[in-house]
Amino acid sequence: MMRPTIANRFVQGNAVKFMSSAPKREYLLLDYRGANNCVAVITLNRPKVLNALSDPLMQELNCTIAEAEAQPNVAAIVITGSEKAFAAGADVKQMQAKTKNFVQVYKDNFLSGWDRVSFSPRVVIAAVNGYALGGGCELAMMADIILAGEKAKFGQLEINIGTIPGAGGTQRLVRAIGKSRAMQLCLTGEMINAKQACDWGKSCHS
Question: What's the number of CA atoms in the CB half-sphere (13 Å) around residue 173?
Fold first, then answer.
């Protein structure tokens, strides 16, 4: 059962919860909450690697989003992680396993299909506590709304491994906080906290 995190607080009140009867998921949890089960809550569940985003996880996320969209009562989808990490970035080990050359990662379409979240016809909310870094930050920005808990930390740390935000982060970050601040984060690898993200227009507080 989920802890009383930001995602739980969002769907409290008239909550009617049941676990999905879909086949067992390896990397995610799905349950429905709210009046008439109108909110689908998807929880990233790779705690040992701080919810690092791998191809299998993202494929499972895409399928789970499609499953939630197929439910007639679902009006909103909440994507969340743990108190420690929303998602700490792309799974670098998987990238390294593919090739030691990070440039080749993009040529091999490692990130293909990662933007499914942004095409959902439902309202998508990223409920962020803990780290949302690199690909995790980009995943949060694909949502319509980011709700940031007090311990949320955002950052594009790709520069630390000699690459760039490759899942739309360079575009979405500019739209959210402006070119200069986006360049600052991408070129320095700095992290910002929930208050700063809210002040800059990247997120809303819970």
Answer: 28
